[in-house]
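Researcher: Please predict.
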Amino acid sequence: MGDSPLSVKVEPTHLGEHLAGREFVYLITNNGERSHVVALRPDLNNDIARFANTGRTPLANVAANSSVTLTWPPCDSTQTHEHAKYSVVADGVATIVGDELLVSITNAVLHRPA
């Protein structure tokens, strides 16, 4: 890592290009008082992440506060691409569609440990 930047901006529509080797994402929601974290496997289409089977708490939190954060942890040691040791962190606005959450990603970065 050495001289590599701490964070690298990613265009939301290009997010999928940086997710190879990342098994799941942490969906972080907040109801205004407490945060809730759940590990899920979304379907990603450009800058929209679709989550099924989130459970009740994320749905209730999004009903109270539509701002969410998505965090993909670094890749496992089998991945050797340039940003494998970076986490992918994205902010978005979530909407409830039936029992699913759709997250419109508004900004994203690759972020490595300091």
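Model: The chain has one domain: 7-111.
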